[in-house]
Each structure stands twice: as structure tokens, then as C-alpha cells.
Amino acid sequence: MQIPGNSFLNTNGLTAREGQLFDWCATPLGDPSCWPESLRAAVSVQLAKTGNSVKPVAEGDLNNIFQQVPYAVCILRGPDMRIEMANNAILGKLWKKKLADVKGKKMLDVFPELLSQPFPALLQQVYNTGVSYRENEAVAYIEHENVLEKYFLDFVYAPLFETDGTVSAVIITVIDVTEKVDTRNKIEEAELRLRLATEAAQLGTFDWDLANEVFVQSPRLAEIFGFGNTGDVSHKQLIEAINPEDKTIRDRAVADSYYKGSLQYEVRVTWPDNSTHWVKVYGKVVFNSDRVAERMYGTVQDVTQEKTMLRLLEAGEQRSRLAIESAQLATFSWDANLDRVTYSPRFTEIFGYANDPVFTRESMVNCIHKDDRPVRDKAVEDSFKTGLLLYEVRIVWPDTSIHWIKVFGNISKDKTGKPLQIHGIVQDITKERGALLRLAESEDRLRIALDSANLGTWDLHLNPVSIFYSRRVAQIFGYDKDILLTSDEFRESVHPDDLGVVVKAHQDAISNGILQYEARIVWQDATIHWIRCNGKTLYNEKHEPVRMIGTLMDITEERNFTMVLQESELLLKTISGTAPVGLWLTDKQGNYIFVNKTWITWTGETYENNLGTGWLAKVMPEDIQETQAKFTKALGSKKYFSTEFRLIKNGNIRWCLTEGYPFYGINGEFAGFAGSVTDITDRKSIESELERKVAERTDDLKRSEERHHKMIDEIQDYAILLLNPDGYIQNWNKGAQKIKGYTEKEIKGKNFRIFYTKEDQENKVPDQLRALAIKNGRAEAEGWRVRKDGSKFWASVVITALHDDHNNVIGLTKVTRDLTERKIVEEQRQLQTQELSIKNYELRQQKEFVDVILNSSVDIISVFDSEMRYISVNKSFEDAYKVAREDILGKKIIEVFPPEKTVSLRRNVERALAGESIYGVVHKSAITSRHYESFFIPLKNNNEIYAVLVLAHDNTEIIEAAQKLDEANKVLEEKTLDLQKANAALEKSNSELEQYAYVASHDLQEPLRKIRTYSGMLNEILKDKADGASIAILGKIINSATRMSNLIYDLLNLSRLLSPERQFEPTDLNKIFENVINDFELVIEQKKAVIEITRLPVIDAVPLQVNQLFYNLVNNALKFAHSTRQPLITVTAEKIDAGTYPEAGLNYAFEYVDIAITDNGIGFSQQYAEQIFEVFKRLHTKQAYQGSGIGLALCRRIVLNHQGSIFAEGKENKGSVFHVILPFHQSKI
Amino acid sequence: MAQKVILIDDDPDDHEIFAMAIDEASSEAECVLFDSAETALEELSRYAGKLPDYIFLDLNMPRMNGMQFLELIKKDNVLAGIPVIIYSTSILPSIKAQALHFGAFDFLAKPTSHLELIKSLKKLLLVE
After folding, report:
1. Which CATH number belongs to the domain containing residue B17 in this structure?
2. Helices in A857-939 by DSSP H: which ranges?
3. Is A410 a domain residue?
């Protein structure tokens, strides 16, 4: 017979066969298929060992097997559970008994402590029902040497059947898992402490001694509750700070914590300034062995900010977002029995059938994209096995658009595994699916956000065509911002002439991804506006264009302005470029900042070379000084000037006349000179020629007037006339006739006044000129003169006096030249100069404006040209890099800074030059060793990048502060952790002691109480009947019990003092003594005691403890008073140092007060001076002096807690002195 | 009218002391003793006979302790109205707070003197 699953029995040999055939079920081991692995191994080894035996396994062998099983095993026989067999494992480790002592005995007799535990009932149950029972990590208490020990056990109770099927015994298998459970608990606790420790930095902490109602908190806790860090806040005050509405939350949480072992709640607290703060309390409860809560400790955290954030989130705009999000939850529930689906409204929306009342399961399946249906079918099929439904498919909306959904569901089944219901949610994940699209979109969003609010934004879906746009778009198209427009309507607005541009741009955009155009649109009021449209095409995974997004800008003004500007600039350029005069412009220092094309041609130098003082280069060296002097003078006086100089023009020397006019800015400030240069070589040469000729011919004239007249007459370009000294015309040449229109006949004998305008005549201009000529021999003038036909011409006039040999003026010659043409040009030139100066002023204003902005920026700004040369830097740049602008402009980065320190800068500038805008590069400069957040922005002109603007924002302070904070936090964390570890160790030893004290107080009080009650009752019954001796004995019993009760109470007090966690505070010892004396008022009166106390200091102490200390000492002094002397107790205080009492082991770093309490009582022999401080040491009989023998031990403990010392000096029958040495200040170490 | 007082305590000595004290405090009062919270709860839940005027409740009992009993009885609409007096050896402040939270009426520390107990009970039952 082969027993399936029992192959381990199939070893070789006869016994093996026997083993297989052996009816194991009838043995205490039961069915082999139920054996634990170790038992199987033991049996197979045993079978192999006894390989030659033909006998069935004897009981002795079985016993052997039992003993070798590493599990604790025992067998309990019969209904009264007698121990039949127990192996070493159970005997040694768990029971700690010998087999001989337990064998055959009733389980409950051996382990009476089990009576109050569930195990006997369970055993009985297994015995009665024949059904095995198993439990893991069950708590069991087993008594060893009168102490209950706690175990965690995994155990199995299995029935052993007789052949008739009745149960005859129960076999117990036990594994002791106490260590495992304890370790796990410890780990849990350690983790908890770790978490508390790491949070401790910002946390307030508290420790609530429930037994004694002492609540201790950290200063931070008081702060969190709004009490500043005064530290002097009671528990009651803290509780009162809690918002009345939240008080029940706290009360409930505290009550619950007694069961759960942990405390957790959040409440609002009201600060003294009436502000409300959120506080989160987290704590742990420490129980004693009876599960009575003893202590609560934990942390308090200010969570106002988190809470406020949350509230803002709920309150503000985010609320609507949350509402939308939550509304997007589409839920469904499918009932298998009814085959019916119920769903939330959002569910149908996701499928594109908003509010469709007849949306069935079939409708839903039909919506799923054909290609994805197998995905869904597979998922549904799988879900019946796994219980989870999860799939993502595409669905097709009624408008044929495609969306992605994610379905997530849970399946509940009945016992047979048949599905009952599916609950789930459906999410629209179309957006998530297009991760790439989303990324591109977010980048663009960022860019758009950076642009001004004047931009309209739009989002055009291509398939099907639908457009979404910001309100600004509608405004740009001349509509009300709230109106809804279709893409067709937008298209119809485009100016017919520009429609081609727009269509082309869109076609291009589909192929190359970028949309960009400027076009005119026609508003409904027929006005024409310019728009600039920038956009980007988004593609799906198959690179099919699906959307275009972009911005729209109204550029009408810009466009108009540009056109006007372009026109006027062109005009100016044309005029100044083609004028036959040189034009120039200086700044207020006199540096040339502009020259025109004509001047450039004349000098043959470049534009740049002419600027500053470069124009002087081609001036004849002899003339430079004078020219410069005149200009400098004019510059100083800010007045018109003119000067003539010679210019070397193409190798020839030309005479030039330059004239300059000061010009002023809008605010009236002198801005520079604007002027012109005229080539006057021709005039110059004619003039000098004329003079020469006139002089030459004067003699001839005298000799041959005819010839002279003739010659004059022939000159046609000049009007040359001869006047008598009074100004009457004597002679007239052909030139005069040509210029002035009069014939000689008409004009001869008339005064030359006739050529002047009426105004000039009235102002006697001609007479003055004539007088000047007579006086000086020569007079020159320019001005408007009148022709015969009344028309005016610009005349240049030279009048020369003619003298006889006696130097008498015999006449005047007047030479007039028509300079009208020149004058017109000159006037034009002046006009242009003015325009130029205005233009220049505007430019300068703009430049200044930009300069001011750049230089006032704290951010470092630099601009590079396309060759990566610095073309502009601001003041912050100069300051940060300690360079001067002049030294670096025009230089390349690598020429200015060490190349290895500018690698990333150059890379980023290169990227920007390639067209990429780089935002927010965070880096540390190798040059300045500071941290910056930098922006690299390409500057474009007509789509061509001509420069890169680099803006660096110095955020060193923030980064360094963050780093320092990090470091500080780390140190703090470590320190807190160390502290917590030390605390944990301390707490452990304290709690053990406290537990002992509690057991002492509670468990010892209990029987004592009864002794006292019963003896009291006995006393009542006997007091009238019994003899005096019995009553006396009874009295002694009562007294002893009472004393023991006090003893226990004092012990408890002592043990509490072992915990050093009490708070030290400045304590006025005078007040302490006041309290103590009050307590003894009655005794002092009875004994007529005198107590003298000198002035005592204020020291760092735990008030309750020092109160107890001096209470005990005064109590002793009164108690041990001499029977015949009036008690006198004196208390003195003296400041001492550690050296005063070398044997007291005082700390040399402290200052101490020595408080001496001297009495005149019975005293003691000095040999007992040390003994009296030991627990239960008494020098006197109880009859003589009452007391527990703990009082002075308590005193010593208190003094040690204060890092002090106590000792006594005594003389029998004279009195005693107790020295209490306490430090003034408590060290924190 | 005769008052009915029940004591729930697993200590037979305390049963004896308490019963004697009740006898002496009031000749009219009826005293019923339970040695476990379960049996007391079972009995009370039958609502048979007169409901007690006071329940004296020990805290430290096996299986179901006094606090559990208190919590359960306060959930019963009928029984919740009976004043429950915690009757225990030592009453820690924390235990006191907890008991009050669950609706305890008063506290009586198990006395060390028989006469003291009689005095307390007389006060409670308004015998004097």
C-alpha cells in the first residue's frame, strides 16, 4: 500500500515497508500527511535506523521520535486532560518541569494559571468536536517559580482518534514565538521613536504622567499653543487654548487612546492675540501590566500652514478645479444577476453621449474602437480570475472623434466563484495618452505666459475643425470678447488681398510645424487692422497634424507707426544723402555723432572715421587750430558760429564754410551743435580775383573810364554798379541788368535803396551799409533784395569805397551776386538739421531709457553679437565681474575670461544664437563663485538672430541659506536622534522601576486593606466582650497594618523620585520653608517648638522635591525632640564652594549653598551618621519613634537628583545638624 | 421604598464586606452580588424584576473588566440610566477620567475601615 504524499516513508528495508503499512492514524502522531516537516524527517531517520527490525514501531521508539522533534509536543489523554507524554522541547523551554513531575497529572493541576486563560476551553472543544484548532501568536501566561511569564505561542491542538472514531486524546504542538513578537514590537517602537525624533526639531513634546497628573511640555509646545517660550504654562491653560468647538475632538481622542494605545488628533487653538492655529497631536500611551494607562507622551506639531493651504485650496479657484476633477469621476456598477449597468452622469459624457438615458452595456461596448475590442474582452475575461478589471482602450464618439479611456474595476464573487458585481471607474485619459503633445503644449504655454496679456491665444483642432481661443482673440477681430466665433468666421475676416498669405502660411505650418504670418483683417465696421499670428502644429504619433496652437497679436499700431517711421526716415536719408552740403551733428561735448553722405564723399573717409574729432583729419593742418578754436568757443557760449577752412578733397584744396547752430532737447537742455559745410572754393576764388582786378584797374579807370566801363559792363554774373558817395547810381553793367531787371537808362541817377525791401529801407539798412563802406573802405552784406518785377533774390553784396589821391571818397562800387539758389539749399539744410536733431534726440532718449533700465537692474545683463562678442553690459555686470565696460566691449568671451571657466556660458550663448530661448539655467559661476539663474534670449530682427541677451539673476544668498539650513537640520536631526536614544534607554529603566512601584502600591495595598477592614470589624465586635489583652493584640495588628500601608506609600514616593525627569525652575527656598512650617503648625504648637530661619537663597530646583526634602528634615527634628527640652530648630544658609567639604564629592564648577538644619533633640552617635540615610535603617524602636525608615533615604535621593550632597552630624542627647548642600544652578550636562 | 443595589466584584471577601455594610446602612436596601461582569450584564439585559438603583462596579476583573462593562451598559437604552459607582482599591486619575468619559456616576475607593464604608453608603442611599 502506497500512501500518496507520504513518499518520505518509502525508504528501503523491511521497516520501511512496515512503516508504510503501519497504521499511523491510530498512533498519537495521527495521519502522516498532517505531520510537520521535522516530524517527517525524524520518522524517516528512525525508520532507516531500525532497518532490520520486523516489529511494528514500539511505543518506546515513538517516544524516541517524540523526543527528537524540535517542536514542543505533548499529548493530553482523556476528558480531564492528563499529561500522557511531553517531549524535551516542551518540558525544558516552556514548562521548565521534569517529565516525572507532570506525567499522569491533570494539565490544570500542573498549570492552574491556565484556568483564567482560554486554553482549557479550547482543548475541551477539540476533544469534544474532533476538529483541530490552530492559533498564531496567542498570548499565554505560564507561571515559573510563582512568577507569571508572558509568552507568544503558535500552537495546534489536534485530536487523536480511536479506531471507533471517538477522540481519546489531544496532541499539542507549540512553537514559542515570543522572541519574534517581542523583536517585532521593539522594531515597531524603534521606528516610531525614530520618526518622532526626526520630527522633533519643529515639534513640541509632552510627557503626561497620568498616575500623578503631572504634565510636562517642551518650550516649543507652549510656543505652538501661543504662549511664547515662557515655559510657565499649565496643562489646564493648554487645554483651555483649544477652540471650544474642538474640545470634544480632543476629549474623545484622549479617551480612545486608553484603548488604542496611541493618541492622534488635530484641533484649532486660539492664541492670546485671538489668531487661530491648527495643532496636530500625536502620542503614545504607556500601560502597566494591568493595561492601566500610566503615561502618555508624544509630540505636537503646528500644522496651520498645511491646513491653511488646504483651506485655500478648497476655498479659492482650486475649488472649482477640484469640483471638475471630482465630477470627472465616472463610476459604473454591473449587476451580474440582472445583467444591468448603472453609472454616474459623467460616465456617458466620457463616451460622448452626455445625458443619454438609454446608454446600455451594449452601447458602451459599441463605442469601443474596433481594433481595441479584443483588449477589452481579454481584460474582462482575466478579471473573472484575478478579481481586478483594468484596461485602456480607444473609444469613438458619435462625432467620430477618438478618445482614450481607462477602466478600473473590482469584482465581487459569491462562494462558488461566480461573479456577482463589478464596480469601477472610467477615466478619460486622452490627454495623458498624448504625452508628447502635452509636453509641447506646456512649453508653448510657458512662452505664451511670458508674453504680455495683449496676446490672444488659440487652439485649432484640425480633425474635426474646431477652434478654442482666448477672449482677446475675439477682441482683436473686432468682436465682443464673449462672442463665440467659428474658424470660418475668422477666415472671412481676413482681408481678401491677404487671404493668400494666410492660406499659404497655414499650409506651410502643416508641413514644417511653424505658423507665422502678418495679415490684414477687416472689422465689421470696415476698418482694417493688422494681425500677427504665431503658432505651432502638433502632431500625433503617426505624425499626422492634429492641432495648431498659438498666439495672435494686434499689430495695427505697430504697423502704422513703422510705415510712418520708414517714410520719414527714408525722406531724411534721401535729403541728407543727396544735399550738396555736408551735414553734421555733435553731442554736447562737441563730438561728432553724425555726418551725412556728402561729407563722407568729400573727406573720402568712412562714416565711423569721421565721428568724434575724426573729421579734422582732412582739414589743412594750418587751419585746424583756428577751426577748432572757433568751434570750442561756440561750444562754450552755445551760440551760432561759422568759420572757413580748407579741406583736402581728393588731393585738391577746397575752401569750405562751416556753420553751426546749437540745438536743445525738449526740456530745454543744450544737446549739441547741428551744422553744415559748404564748398565755397568758387566764391572764394571769384572774390579774390575780383578784388585783385578792382585794385588793378583803379588806375586804369582813372586813365580810361571808357575801358573800365566796358569791362564792368561785360561782367554778367555780377551786378557791378558805381554809386556816388550819396548812393545814387552812376553806372550799370549787363550783369546788373540780368540780376535786377532794370536797364541802365531806367536806373541811372536813382538811389540804390530801390533794391532793398520796404522794411530794409525804413530801417535805413542801405544807408548804414553805404556809411560803413565810406568809413571802413569796404562793406559786405547778404540779404533779400527786390528785382524790378518785385520778385526777391538772395544777394551777396560787397560795397567798396573809391578814393582820390587825397583820400577823399569820390564814389562807391557795389558788387552784387545772386545767391538765391544757394540760400534755398541752405534753408533746406537747416530744416533737415533741425529734423535730424529731433530724431537724434529721440534716439538718445530711447538709448538713455534703455541704459537707465539696464544699469539700474540688479540682475547681470550682457548682450553678445553673432560672433559672441560683448556688445553691451550693464553696471551689475561690471560690478560682478570686476571689469570696465570699455575694456570688454567688442571682445569675445574667451578674450575676456579664462576659456575653461566659460564653457557652459559659451555653450548656452551658442544655443541661443541657434534660436533657442533658454530659461532659468541654475549654475555656479567659476569666475565669481556665485550662484545664478540665467536666461539666454535670442534677439531677432526680421527673423534673423543678431544678438543674444544674457540675464543672470544672483540667487547665491538663497542657495547658500538653503544649504546652511540643510546642514543645520542634519546636525539637529543627528543630535535629536542621539537624545532620543538616550531618552529611550532612560525611559525603559524608569518605567521598570515605576511598574515595580505600582505593583507595590496596588497589589500590596489590596490584602492590607482587607486586614485592616476585618480587624476593624473584629474590634467592633470584640470591644465590649473580649479581655484587655486580646483588644491590645488586635490594636497591634491594626497599627502594624496601618504602618505597612504608610510604608508602601512612602516606597512609592521614593520610586517616583528615581525618575529624574522633573523640571528644574528657580525656586525660592524661603517660600518652601514657609509651606513646610505651615504643615507642622499643629505639632509646633503642641511641642511649643521654636524655629528660626535665616534668609534663604533662590536656587534651581524641583519645588515639589525640595518641599518634600525639608518637610522630612523638619519632621525629623520635631519627631526626635528631647523629652525635657523645648525644641529649637535653626535653619541657616551659607554660600560655599566644592572645596569646603572635600569628602562630599562636589563639582568644582558649581557654587553651592549649604543649608544647615540644627536641632537640640536626642541626636545620635556620629558612627551612625551614614547609616541613617539607608532605606529601612532605624536607630530607634518603632514604639519610641514612629516612621517608615524611608524618610532620610528619600532626602538623599532628592539631593542627588539636584546634584548636591547631604550629610549629618550628631551628638547623643545633644542634638543633630543636617547639612543640605545644593548647587545654585543646575548644569545642563 | 426599598432600594436595590448591586455589586459587581470578583472578590468574595468584598462581597461579604459590602453586603454587611449595606445591611447596616439601610434595613430596607436589597443587595445583589455578581462575581463577574458577564453574569451581571446577562442578568440585567433580561430586564427581569426591578432594575437596581445603583451599580457598584469593581474595575479589575478577569475576562470582562469594569470599564468594558461600563461602556456596554451605557449603550443600552434602558440600563444606561442606572448610576454606576466605580468601586475599586486605587483609583488613578487617568482611570477616573476614562470612567467619567464612559458615564460613571461616582467613585468610591474600597475602604480600609468598615465603619467608613457604612458611612459612605448611608450618605449615598440617603438613609440619614
Report:
1. 3.40.50.2300
2. 875-881, 885-888, 893-896, 903-913
3. yes
Nearest CA in chain A to B88: A1006
CA angle, A202 then A206 then A210, to 5°: 165
Instruction: Mark yes or no for CB contact B17/A1045 under 8 Å.
Output: no
- CB of B90 within 8 Å of a chain A CB? The answer is yes
Residue B126 has pLDDT above 60, yes or no: yes
pLDDT of residue A1061: 55
- Helices B66-73 & B37-45 angle (0-180, nearest 10): 20
Residue B87 near residue B69 (C-beta atoms within 8 A): no
Is B128 within a domain? no
- Give the domain CATH number at A127: 3.30.450.20
**Residues sharing a CB contact under 8 Å with residue A254, sequence separation 6 or more, in sequence order:** A263, A296, B97
Domain limits for position B57: 4-123
Interface touch A251/B62, C-beta < 8 Å = no
| Partners of residue A115 in chain B, C-beta under 8 Å | none
Regarding whether A800 and A702 lie in a shared domain, the answer is: yes
| Residue A206 sits in the same domain as residue A304 | yes
Residues on chain A touching B94 (C-beta within 8 angstroms): 210-211, 258, 292-294
Instruction: Count how many Cα atoms sit within 13 Å of the Cα of residue A951 in the half-sphere of its side chain.
Output: 15
> What is the identity of the amino acid at B92?
L
| Beta-carbon separation of B94 and A211 below 8 A | yes
Closest C-alpha to A149, from A115, A121, A120, A114: A114
Task: Determine the structural domain holding residue A191 and report its residue range.
Answer: 183-314
Residues A733 and A778 in one domain: yes
**Within an 8 Å CB–CB cutoff, is residue B115 touching chain A?**
yes
Residue A647: which of A603, A683, A686 has the closest Cα? Answer: A603
Residue B99 included in any domain: yes
A164 and A21 share a domain?
yes
Q: How far is CA A52 from CA A14, A47, A621, in A?
A: 7, 9, 140
Interface of A with B (CB under 8 A): 116, 210-213, 251, 254-255, 258, 290, 292-294, 1001-1002, 1005-1006, 1008-1010, 1012-1014, 1016-1017, 1020, 1045
Domain finish residue from A679, A707, A735: A679
For residue A962, what pLDDT is reported? 83
Instruction: Indicate the number of domains in chain B.
Output: 1
B93/A213 CB distance under 8 A: yes
Q: What is the ipTM of this complex?
A: 0.74
Weakly modelled stretches of chain A, pLDDT under 50: 1-5, 7, 10-19, 48-59, 198, 200-201, 313-327, 435-453, 565, 568, 570-571, 574-575, 1229
**Do A803 and A912 fall into the same domain?**
no
- Where on the phi/psi map is residue A137: left (φ > 0), alpha (ψ -120 to 50), or beta? left
Find chain B residues with C-beta within 8 A of A213's C-beta. Answer: 93
Number of domains observed in the structure of chain A: 8
